[in-house]
């Protein structure tokens, strides 16, 4: 730390501070010392973890004190720590440094040890819980916030981008307590390095825009710079980065992802506030397969935009399959679940699968599953873009009524939002900056150039008719 990390951080922060935006550093522990951990097969080690919890309870106090001493040591070396997460990926007993916590155990650690220690020494330091993938963010945060003492100490919930696109869980977590925040603290393209890969850059753009639209207050890459194989890494967990350094040649390569990140971070300064934006695109030529839709992608209600991942192909008779246009993915009740609250996803279309057969009642607007007769339902009557779609006993509620339009979109009567799965080919997010500028970021991940108009309701008029090239990202400000 003293030989390389701290000098590097101080130089970087000096440069950032000179530009008017000092770096905010947060710490994320991966493993306690081996002697503090529950043995696995009789062995205590920093790599790996016992499950469901890896930290010995009798060492919770010692481990919390370790955080305090680490923060103090850095401060004495001239580096201030802005915040921390309790544990990196607490649900993963990884083959590298790891320590699992279920939500109840993490809550116990925060409420009785870490929270009191940190608040007594660093009252303004930001504390974040969870710090794992979107699939469990809501359930984990719900448990943390259910303990009022834990909730008092936590400022927000951190999450990662891996394994799931369940943005509705981020949305729901925000609404658990709007005085807390949600923050995307890690994303990374793996495995290895792929120089000049623009698809990986688009992965960044899609995820950043989506997370910011669903209340994340920021977004962070895992790595600033890596070598040409995606390391160094002592367990060969090689990944990509925005900057690749060839140590032997003393050269650096700027990856396409650098420019996607820069397109947002350059024009959206700290202190900006996301504002509502909506868009509709008419695709004049076929875009091919509905973009970025995979098995098990969730189905949500989101703003109607005419993109292929909102166009459903069905005759809408009795007991018919409903598939995404130009795709082999069908509307599907996950895991043949017949309970209320069963999740709805898209999955490879199959023959004679009752969990993929649907009936539209044109007189009531209800869409029912042949699996159990339950209704397609907008969870919690939500009118927020990103609301999850589930199955529920038919009640006649407006959140179970749908309108099927001529272009294939399926619109919720209660919210006016459209049935959606996967990433949209046309994404956008808007902000009001501290200087009072409106910033609109638009991304096109389709194979076609797209034309659209920009309107600002605050100034009551159309600003400009414009276009965006295929596979491009653009920023507008006024």
TrEMBL record:
Alphabetically ordered keywords of this record: Hydrolase, Signal
Domain Ricin B lectin: 317-455
Lineage top rank: taxon: Eukaryota
Pfam family, one: Glyco_hydro_30
Family annotation (InterPro entries): GH, GH30_C, Glyco_hydro_30, Glyco_hydro_30_TIM-barrel, Glyco_hydro_b, Ricin_B-like_lectins, Ricin_B_lectin
GO CC aspect terms: membrane
GO biological process, one term: glucosylceramide catabolic process
Xref: Gene3D superfamilies: 2.80.10.50, Glycosidases, Golgi alpha-mannosidase II
Gene Ontology MF annotations: glucosylceramidase activity
Protein family (similarity comment): Belongs to the glycosyl hydrolase 30 family.
PANTHER family named in the record: GLUCOSYLCERAMIDASE, LYSOSOMAL ACID GLUCOSYLCERAMIDASE
Name assigned to this protein: Ricin B lectin domain-containing protein
The organism of origin for this protein: Vannella robusta
